[in-house]
Amino acid sequence: MKKIAALLLGTALTLTVQAQKMKEADVPAAVKTAFSTKYPNTTVSEWEKEGANYEAGFKVGKTETSAVFDASGMFLESETEISPNELPKAVSEYVTKNLPGKKIKEASKLTTAAGKISYKAEVGDTDYMFDEQGNFIGKETEDDND
Asked: How far apart are the first and last CA of the chain?
């Protein structure tokens, strides 16, 4: 199970590093249709290409959200901004123990198409990834070229 989580994390982090902003006109029709079906009455504020996939950035109310689709329009995962105090308790315990004096700047909840949940906590210039229970599974330092 941990190998699967690590593999998913690795894939997600690799795709994130390769993200490129793009114009909506360059997004395949199947992707735009799938987005409109999954998120009716929602406007995309930004499209990015992540490897072979497409990420739509948008707001649900005032909450920053993104959704990733493959080129055929299949939904892969979503990421929703949350308050750091909404993270599992184990995440704040990890930060306190392993990053003394540091605070979580931003947090988000990731949900795959299969419903698997994980969390991301930004501390400094690094994103720390955790599974649904709050167990640490990896990290990535932000690159100025993103």
From this structure: 30
